[in-house]
UniProtKB/TrEMBL annotation:
SUPFAM superfamilies: Metallo-hydrolase/oxidoreductase. Coiled coil: none annotated. Residues 2-175 form the Metallo-beta-lactamase domain. Its EC number is 3.1.-.-. Keywords: Exonuclease, Hydrolase, Ligase, Nuclease. It comes from Alteraurantiacibacter lauratis. InterPro entries: MBL (IPR050698), Metallo-B-lactamas (IPR001279), RibonucZ/Hydroxyglut_hydro (IPR036866), Xnuc_lig_assoc (IPR026360). One of its GO terms (molecular function) is ligase activity. It comes from the Bacteria. This is Ligase-associated DNA damage response exonuclease.
Length: 335
C-alpha cells in the first residue's frame, strides 16, 4: 500500500484519529468522541463532545444521561474535524441510529463500521456499501459455521410454539436495544397483532423506537396483566437475564426462547436452559462479512472484536491484505 495511514491509530481503547485529536467509540471519556451506535461496548458517557446520529444521541441520553456536548450528525452529512479530517455518517443496519463512519484525510478514506448486518430490518436503515482504502470490520460471527437463517423462518418457529402451547406463554429473551424491537416488528409483519407483553426493563427503549416512527403495535407490561391467566397463549419479551430468575415465576408455564445468533451453538442454548432457540442476529454472518469486504474492496481490512483468525485466513486465500486489531470492551451484546 502506498499510503501509510499514520493519521489513524488503532488502540486497545478505541480508534484514535491523530490530526483531529478525536476517538471512534472510545472505551474511556475523551474530549471528542465519534460514536457508531448506542450499545454500551461502543457508547459511553463522560465525553466533552459526542458526534453521533440523532437517534444514537437519544439512546445515549436515555441509557447514559449523555446530554452536554451532543452534536447530531444525520446520515450522509459530513462534519469537518480539526486537522483537515472529514467525517461522514453512513447507515450500518445494526440497530436504530447505527452508523459506519467514513473518515477522509489527505486523499485517503477509512471506514469504521462499528457493528453491522446486511439483512433487511424494519427497525433501522439498511447497511450502505461505502468504498474505501481501509475497512475496519467487526468479526463477531467470523467463522464459516455461522450462517444465519431467514428471520421469517425463526419467527415462524416462535408462532408455531405459541399455537402448540395455548395454555402457556412463550418467554423470549432478547437484548433490550435493537433485538427486542426487531423481534416485535417481525412478529407484526408476520401477522401477529395480539398484545405483546414486556418485562419492565424493555419499555423505555420500545417507546423510544416508537417515538422514532418504528411502529410496534400493542405493548403492555407484564406487571399490568390483570391475572396470570391473561398471559396464557401470549408472547412475552424480556432481557436474557430474566429468563430463569424470580421474575419469570409469575408467568404461566413459560416456554423459554432466546433470540440470538449464538443460538446456532447448541451448547449455549443448553447452558441457558433455552427450550426454543431462535437464531436471530443483528450482526453479519460469515457469508455477509466476506461478501461485504469483497463489495467494499478495500486496499486493506482491519478486523476487530470477533473471530479474527478465520477471517484473516480468508483474506490470505483471496489474496487480500488484512490485520487483526487488539480492542477491549467489546462484549456487551448477548447476540
Amino acid at each position: 500500500m502506498s499510503a501509510n495511514f499514520s493519521w489513524i491509530r488503532p488502540d486497545p481503547r478505541g480508534i484514535f484519529v491523530v490530526p483531529a485529536n478525536s476517538w471512534i467509540d472510545p472505551a474511556h471519556p475523551v474530549d471528542t468522541a465519534l460514536v457508531t451506535h448506542g450499545h454500551a461496548d461502543h457508547a459511553r458517557g463522560g465525553h466533552r463532545q459526542t458526534f453521533a446520529t440523532p437517534e444514537t444521541l437519544t439512546i445515549m441520553k436515555l441509557r447514559y444521561a449523555t446530554c452536554d456536548g451532543a452534536v447530531p450528525i444525520a446520515y450522509g452529512e459530513t462534519v469537518r474535524l480539526p486537522g483537515g479530517v472529514n467525517a461522514t455518517f453512513v447507515p450500518a443496519g445494526h440497530v436504530l441510529g447505527s452508523a459506519q463512519i467514513l473518515l477522509e484525510h489527505a486523499g485517503e478514506r477509512v471506514v469504521i463500521t462499528g457493528d453491522y448486518k446486511r439483512r433487511a430490518d424494519p427497525t433501522c436503515a439498511p447497511f450502505q456499501v461505502t468504498p474505501c482504502d481501509i475497512f475496519i470490520t467487526e468479526a463477531t460471527f467470523g467463522l464459516p459455521v455461522f450462517t444465519h437463517p431467514p428471520i421469517a423462518q425463526e419467527i415462524g418457529k416462535l408462532l408455531a410454539a405459541r399455537q402448540k402451547n395455548p395454555d402457556a406463554c412463550i418467554l423470549v429473551g432478547a437484548y433490550a436495544l435493537g433485538k427486542a424491537q426487531r423481534v416485535i416488528a417481525e412478529l407484526r409483519s408476520a401477522g401477529h397483532d395480539s398484545t405483546i407483553w414486556l418485562h419492565g426493563a424493555m419499555e423505555a427503549m420500545c417507546r423510544l423506537y416508537e417515538e422514532h416512527r418504528v411502529p410496534l403495535g400493542d405493548l403492555r407490561l407484564v406487571s399490568d396483566a390483570p391475572s396470570r391467566d391473561a398471559l396464557r397463549g401470549a408472547i412475552v419479551i424480556a432481557p436474557p437475564s430474566a429468563l430463569n430468575d424470580r421474575w419469570s415465576r409469575r408467568l404461566p408455564d413459560p416456554v423459554t426462547a432466546m433470540a440470538s445468533g449464538w443460538m446456532r451453538v447448541r451448547q449455549r442454548a443448553r447452558q441457558r436452559g433455552v427450550q426454543l432457540p431462535l437464531v436471530i442476529s443483528d450482526h453479519a454472518d460469515w457469508g455477509e462479512l466476506t461478501r461485504t469486504i469483497a463489495e467494499v474492496n478495500p486496499a486493506e481490512t482491519w478486523i476487530t472484536h470477533g473471530r479474527e483468525e478465520a477471517l484473516l485466513r480468508w483474506h490470505e486465500l483471496t489474496q487480500r491484505r488484512a490485520r487483526a486489531l487488539a480492542m477491549v470492551g467489546r462484549e456487551e451484546e448477548d447476540d
